Input
Amino acid sequence: MERVYFDHCRSTFVDKRVIEEMNIWMTEKYWAPAPFTSTGTEIQEAIEEAQAVWASFFGGKPDEVQFAPSEVVASNITIRGVVESYWKKHDTMPHIITTEIEAGSTVLSVLRKLEKGKLAEVTYLKVDENGLVSPDDVKNAIKDNTAMVVMADVNFMVGTVQDVTAIGKAIKEKKEDVMFVIDATRSLGRTPRWKYADFADVVYTDAHRIHGPKGSSVLWIKGGASISPIIWGSVTYFKITQEKPNVPVIRGGMKALQILLEDYEGKYEKMKNLQKMLFDGMLERIPEVQINGPWPKYRSPSNVCVTFKYIEGEAVQMYFDMNGITVDTGSACANPFLQANHVILALYNDYARAHGSIRLILSWYNTEEDVNRFLDVAPEVVKTLRRISPVAPEIYKK
Amino acid sequence: MAIKYNEKVVDHFLHPRNLGRIENPDAEAVVGSPACGDQVAIYLKIDPETEKIEDIKFESFGCASNIATASIITELAKGKTIDEAMDITWKKAVDELGGLPPIKYHCSVLAVDGLRSAIRHYLMKEGRIKPEDLNNDLVRGELYHVIYPPLGIDIVSAKRVKYIGVDDGVVTIDIAFDDEDPYLDEIIHEIEEKVSVLPGVKEIKVNNVGLYE
Output
């Protein structure tokens, strides 16, 4: 039985064309970048081409594109880099605006440490029942010492697509020098096709969610942005990330982006159709399904997040796993620190809903057969666990 | 190391024994809550002469460990006297399952609590436990069932319980954890949940005195 994989927020397989591309730079052209020599300059040009491809995607200039070894490193470099720069310039504590639904492993963990260390003060904006941040709330939160607004364009858990254009505009209207930083690590290929440079100052993302290699993080930092390096290494190539170029990974990430851009709309529409099949199919076949997050408006096409009432998420996840289907859950039981998913709590303030939540993140490589396999298995899984559950009504006990 | 369930756990998860409810049970208990992430209900039929558990059934809102432990506990308890059943610990249940990943020990505790709580309800109904019997030993007995997840051992054995006081139904417990310990809220919550089922408890005060006192 072939595995059906619905956890593309956490990993994707690497496209064969990406591997072929990377092989060239690992086996034939494994050289280091350098000036003047034929080997060195060929590598320099290979890196520059990758920068140009990403720059045209972000809407910036090629030399504004830098590479980092992971999204954790990228978010640290960005957020702490802005804080460091602010302290140097103003010798006072910067204020940062974010939302309460950011990813715990990147934005929130960095911000909490900065707060604890008295290096920054942070405002965590509330979101509405769709997970949307209001541009007015962002605007009203800006103070004299606000250095940046940092948030994801697509929420990792419930797929809310933020109105980043309006938020960017609101920020600049209120205070021109407040930086708008977008954590796009989980949204590549999963937003409407927009140009980040139209509203943002810094964007970081990672090609490993679009069938590129792990560790292919990319930052676009607008020229003149106030950001200091926090990692000291080589300034030869990338002034802020100060990494030595990992050429095969950089080329692999570039190739993955090129493949994505070949038919961006087609991939987007394909996921949207599968998503609709999943939501419609579940609502039709299973009673008392709660859709977590916005639907059908404001939602990224790759995100499906639901709670089957009266049952717990890890048990659901295990049942799907045993049926050859990989999904993720927001249950505390599956969390290493036994905490329920903070996004579902922020939207609904309902612990049972968070513990019961199941998340599917689609790729354009998922198929209708994948969706049908899920829909065939789901009603039986839910029925079985409701029969066991002490909180399920009598009708589910038969 | 990869965290996995063994075959016996999976078997009990997929095919739980003694599942369901008992009409007019001699004792029952519901512990935990869906809001906390897991809940177990235990139903007992007890022979008043022999005090043997004639029948036992359970229901669970919980993860695979929770369901599997509840299932094995019903097997362990069936046919035992209530005194013998009171001695079934979470450790015994976990051993009987062939082991659980330490991070999941705390999920296994709830089912054991459910069984003990149901038996306690029976004893209270029979007038054999009274609210005024509440003492330090009973409280400590409950704290043996609060697991510190990173160590996979209970907080008493881990020497994290520094003081227990009982005064007219008010239970005071001092624990020692780092203020930033990511499990601290969960531990306090579990202490309150477990101690609150004891007869005669009016109020529970849990203080974290910090790790470096």
The domain at 7-125 of chain B is CATH 3.90.1010.10 (Sufe protein. Chain: A). Residues 104 and 195 of chain B are 21 Å apart (CA to CA). The interface with chain A takes residues 5, 10, 13-14, 16, 19-20, 30, 34-41, 59-67, 103, 106-107, 149, 182-183, 186 of chain B (CB under 8 Å). The mean pLDDT of chain B is 89.
